Amino acid sequence: MKDFRLTDWLPTTKKEMELRGWDDVDVILFSGDAYVDHPSFGAAVIGRILEAEGYRVAIVPQPDWHGDFRDFKKLGRPRLWFGVAPGCMDSMVNKYTANRRLRSEDAYSPDGRHDLRPEYPTIVYSQILKQLYPDVPVILGGIEASLRRLTHYDYWQERFRPSILCDSGADMIIYGMGEKAVVEISNHLQMAIEDGNAHLDYAEDGTARVGMKTFRDVITHGHCIPQTVSIYNKEDIPGGIVPNDLILHAHETCLKDMKAQAENFRHIEEESNKYHAQRIIQPTGRRYVVVNPPYPPMTQDEIDHSFDLPYTRLPHPKYKGKRIPAYEMIKFSVNLHRGCFGGCAFCTISAHQGKFIVNRSKESILKEVRQITEMPDFKGNLSDLGGPSANMYGMKGKNLKACERCKRPSCIHPEICPNLNTDHTALLDIYHAVDALPGIKRSYIGSGVRYDLLLHDAKDARINQVNAEYTRELITRHVSGRLKVAPEHTSERVLELMRKPSFRLFGEFKNIFDRINREAGLRQQIIPYFISSHPGCTEEDMAELAVLTKRMDFQLEQVQDFTPTPMTVSTEAWATGYHPYTFEPVYSAKSPREKLAQRMFFFWYKPEEQPKIKAELRRIGRKDLADKLFDRTRPVEWNKKENACYDLEGRRRSEGRSGHSNHRTVPKRRNPRREKS
């Protein structure tokens, strides 16, 4: 492995700047995460992208926000702008459980310490920077700001809050993946310096620097940078309000009218998933939050460039061997693509990365794998060849013109779009090329797999054959003993609200998984993920989930309570009480008692939970489910083969010619508004 010097990382201190011969820097990034110089860590990516464009960039990871703010002052002011990147995870999800309890560790901090970042670091860091350097532009990025760009529900404060620009005092948000925007903003500001903009600020040595007047003149009022959010007085909105702008209900209206907030969200999600989006404007107080449309999806060359930069792939030496849990999880993994077209109602991936898949080239992927094989502690096993959803690599619409007109949030719900190419050939080619590299013993798939894509009956027989080959290879060569999949629930009604496929498909996939394991002489496990307390879910639904998963011989491990996070359909339904697309009322378990009453059904097999479960089932009038859960007289063996083909009563479900069950718990309600392209 290459012997790295301290200057191979972006500087984090004045001493490291001096080692590079720098007196000042162009951009300073304040990060809520430890500094890991790896393409999976956002601050490192933005820093390397700007560095490749010739800019001097420094990173201040996890600054101390107490006392005299010395961490915020130690590098001085930048020539162009401050960036605030609070972390790879939403800080509140990172810090607290769904029950608002402090997590045992912070996965993005050295030794998992959870006292190295504040709550809402975006707001805390920005306010400190504006207090110390009121004339320097502060630009927000990362998932925390991205998902709070407009009126949003804050689960931890139990209220709707305006755009995070209002609370933070920052000057701009870059939402989504920010590589293109940071370069364009920096280039315009650098050109303003070179052209001698009338509003420039000058240091004592005569160095020209950007102040707020220049930033407003050149950026917020001069160039409409895609994928950015700014606040304006009405008369200052670039170009004025035009008929093509999408005007949302005002923030103050949303505080009084939950249906107005739900309607706002539907428009926000639709625009987030369109190829050609409208500009969004929301009145907030006496001002207007303006969201410029995003850039088109990155090209393969652009995403390759982002991943091929000279990352050390290591934590900064300042941590001196301390364990950073998130890094340990991904150090031997490779991300193949960005984006996800699943559109799960509780997930923020498409809101941040978009639904259009952007694939890395095989050459870029193999280059990264070769770098991993040179790491001294690599033993030959890649932990993950994946992405937001592991098996979406290479997938896109067959007719791209149709995709450009579409605003469906999901390409696979309520059914797989006939325009979607579900061919796994390109992904198989990646697996084969990686496995053929010297130094690779096995490559595993640690990301979640969409089994509905594997089971889809395409009109092209070749694609069906390839997908069957992919399924077999996945199970026999790329599972490290346990394969993670996410059915999330068993209730058809709840799954419809989640935008997840029928639980029947999970049963079909499990049958295939078990059969292939038997044929290959393997003893692997399938690990399903489930969620309790999702909007629409009742205690009765959870009790039925317990019965069905018991019949499938599962004792569930990977479970969680629904956590309302900004900018998801599920959160809007949870917070407003209405589904954003139908405006139908939706029940949600909100009190600690209601949430715990649902969660306990995951653990029906624990003796300490059984009396409470029996009492709850008596209370809701479903003692019959208690008999099914705790009946010790019925043998379990009957269900071990094709168990998912049985209903709650143990009856075998009818099957059509395809072998798919015709049983439906609830008829699917068609929603013309959602299906319209």
Q: Any idea how many domains?
A: 2
* Overall morphology: globular
Radius of gyration, CA atoms, in whole angstroms: 26 Å
- Percent of residues in helices comes to 25-40%
What is the CATH C-level name of the largest domain? Alpha Beta
Major β-sheet profile: 9 strands, mixed
Mean pLDDT across all residues, rounded? Answer: 91
Q: Can you list the strand order of the major beta sheet?
A: 3-1-4-5-8-11-14-13-12
Query: Strand share of the residues?
Result: 5-15%
Terminal residue distance: 51 Å
CATH architectural designation of the largest domain: Alpha-Beta Horseshoe
What is the CATH topology assignment of the largest domain?
pyruvate-formate lyase- activating enzyme
Broad structural category: alpha/beta
Q: Could you give the count of β-strands?
A: 24
Enumerate how many helices there are, as a single number. Answer: 27
Q: Low-confidence parts, pLDDT < 50 over ≥5 residues?
A: 633-646, 651-677
Specify the CATH homologous superfamily of the largest domain.
tm_1862 like domain
Core attributes:
677 residues; Rossmann fold; pyruvate-formate lyase- activating enzyme; disordered C terminus; UPF0313_N; iron-sulfur; rSAM_sf
Structural commentary:
The protein has about 675 residues and is of the alpha/beta class. It has two domains: about 240 residues, Cobalamin-binding domain (Rossmann fold), CATH 3.40.50; about 260 residues, pyruvate-formate lyase- activating enzyme (Alpha-Beta Horseshoe). Helix content is about 35%, strand content about 10%. The strands form eight sheets. Strands 3-1-4-5-8-11-14-13-12 form a nine-stranded mixed beta sheet, sandwiched between helices. A three-stranded parallel beta sheet has the order 22-23-24. A two-stranded antiparallel ribbon has the order 2-15. Helix 11 runs antiparallel to helix 23, helix 22 runs parallel beside helix 26 and helix 25 runs antiparallel to helix 26. The longest helix has 18 residues. The protein starts with 13 loop residues before the first helix and ends with a helix. The C terminus is likely disordered. Keywords: 4Fe-4S, Iron, Iron-sulfur, Metal-binding, S-adenosyl-L-methionine. One of its GO terms (molecular function) is catalytic activity. Its cofactor is [4Fe-4S] cluster. Belongs to the UPF0313 family.
